[in-house]
Fold this protein.
Amino acid sequence: MRTRFILIQTSHAGNVGGVARAMKVMGFDDLVLVAPRWANVLRREETIQRASGANDVLAKARIVESLDEALEGMDHLCATAMTPRDFGPPTLAPRAHFDALLRPTVAETPDQTPAPAAPEGVAFLFGSERFGMRNEDVYRCHAALCIPTAPDFGSLNLAAAVQLIAYDWRQALGGFAPPAAAAPPRSLADTQALAGLLQHLEQALVAVDFLDPEAPKKLMPRLNQLFNRAALSEEEVHILRGVAKAMLKTAQQAKR
Amino acid sequence: MRTRFILIQTSHAGNVGGVARAMKVMGFDDLVLVAPRWANVLRREETIQRASGANDVLAKARIVESLDEALEGMDHLCATAMTPRDFGPPTLAPRAHFDALLRPTVAETPDQTPAPAAPEGVAFLFGSERFGMRNEDVYRCHAALCIPTAPDFGSLNLAAAVQLIAYDWRQALGGFAPPAAAAPPRSLADTQALAGLLQHLEQALVAVDFLDPEAPKKLMPRLNQLFNRAALSEEEVHILRGVAKAMLKTAQQAKR
């Protein structure tokens, strides 16, 4: 499935750079500008600065005169509009729409007319910073995506809106894995190892005169629960037993 | 639950403004800056410009000297770090962590030690643009959030990172509803209305010599399926029957 971001009549060069960066960080690179304010917007200093390394997206980007040219090869159009239009496409939250779009209805029996397949080219359309999208451009779209924002402040920066849509769409497409932790996975201590630790600690706590064996109250069950919640690793059990051992040794020396 | 965003040693004033805007658009307003590069960063022109109306967040923001001061009252700390640290907190994707955090384990029987409740104050920590977070600051955190980005380009702008975290966190907290569509909800045409339309259209298509009643092929079932997928409203059925009526009338006039 191809993904395209289309900016219509964008006026701030910095935003074009920010959009290129926001796209690349989510693995997208097809950017089309319809009649931007600056003809040289892709080469302006502010653009390149805010792109912060997403130069290949800028290099590949196209500038066209009309929305028609920008839409070539796309078969599913998503407007991004904060204001729903009468007779326009349904207003939907991005996540819900992406889920529905990628799970098309399946025909129930083989001899039924097959349901339409998932789209092959999805375009996200963003209007100008000052005026948003024109009604006639919104009417062409299959959905009007509305990012849910605070009721009293819906002023999303253009690059921020692209960032959120690109993120949700990438996640819906399966996402990128977070980097593996540098440390190898922890190997959890089993209950026997934990019981050994608690016994060892109990002796140490008695030795340093913190725990009174005649009136132990609920100290050991509390520690047991604390360690359960912490899900101790084998290595951590070793460390804590080392602490218990050192406490016992110091207590013996103190009694000499 | 309280939510705080903490920026550590931020160097670009524009980013502070962008962060204020990103927070406010998701309904958050508690911003703390630890040792920013500019002491007057909250009043700089670039900051106010990029905040684009989120002036109340800037007015409420605090500047402090140390992370300790910034953390007051918080009991769950999320680092945002692209590079996992040995011996640091687990590296987690934001959505998965937020889901787990807001659904704490429930004790299975009433007499068990109750599971710890959900946190009351959650802080999101962001390092400086150039160096990220210091190891010792990451070690204090309960989780290291890693926004899943393209494997070859993980360079998220600071305000963009705050925007994504604020969005995921707001969604996890229940989200904001998208605005209701301006138009009243469509009232779907029932199957009887659809059957009437198809009959009317069939007559009209015969009248304009498009459909041969002796060899109708599969035209009407195809139209039926098309209309099923489109989920026609009652109003749309009226419009299409108006079209059929006009076709029939024109065909009659043509035969005179």
In short: Chain A touches chain B through 56 residues (CB under 8 Å).
